[in-house]
Fold this sequence. Notes:
CATH class: Alpha Beta
Number of domains: 1
Number of strands: 12
Helix content: 25-40%
Largest sheet: 6 strands, mixed
Keywords: ATP-binding, Nucleotide-binding, Transport
Number of helices: 9
Radius of gyration: 18 Å
GO molecular function, one term: ATP hydrolysis activity
Order of helices and strands: EEEHEEHEHHHEHEHEEHHEE
Mean pLDDT: 93
CATH topology: Rossmann fold
Shape: globular
CATH superfamily: P-loop containing nucleotide triphosphate hydrolases
CATH architecture: 3-Layer(aba) Sandwich
Pfam families: ABC_tran
Strand order of the largest sheet: 6-7-8-3-9-10
InterPro entries: AAA+_ATPase, ABC_transporter-like_ATP-bd, ABC_transporter-like_CS, P-loop_NTPase
Strand content: 25-35%
Amino acid sequence: MKLVFDGVTAGYADVPAVHDVTLTIAKGEFVAVVGPNGSGKSTLLKTVYRALRPRTGAVLLGAEDVWTVKHRQVARRVGVLGQDQAGGYDFTAREAVRLGRYPHLGAFDRLSAADEKVVTEALERTGAGEFADRPLSTLSGGERQRVLLARALAQQPEVLVLDEPTNHLDPAHQISALGLVASLGVTVVAALHTLDLAARHATTIVALKAGTIAAAGPPAEVLTREIFREVFAVDGSVIPDPVDGRPRVLLRELSG
């Protein structure tokens, strides 16, 4: 499913956090939105899943404006892992992931055997199956993050919106989680802090600076020394991984 930001301006304060962003994300593309704190990454993503209405512009899923169709239609098509999703700590992990199926059910429907199979598969694919029946309140931050990703996958969405999906995850689960997301074949837009992970997994990188797009394109074109300096106030280099040839990012403090 194609996702389009058409001149989107949004924010909570008098000065918008995102200003006049225009961007087309093709079906099946994995877009990593990067930028320093306060650059507007989370604000931009919230306009997709109807957590924040744009002041101007439109967010389109295919040909439909997400703010003019019914909320339930968006919930069926867009899976979300947001920074502020508490997840209901009195739920077990399995119960939390079951919530991902509810947009597909009628008002009086119950989960079917097929729905339960989707839930179990999502738990297993994210490595959360081993603690599926434990309360969320007993899980570590990284374990809860895997459950929330499983819940998004259980929706079987056409578009996945991920706001810092690797927060709280150890290195092994950071790599496996993004590798899983990249393998799904759905449209993905993810706000990421770690440029090395963005370079390794995304097909396109969008660099935000003060709420506007500073650069957008393939990792090799966007992650340049000039962008490191201009957007992130660091120096850096991109080198090929000696094992698989994927781009790897090396950052260092600016000198001089």
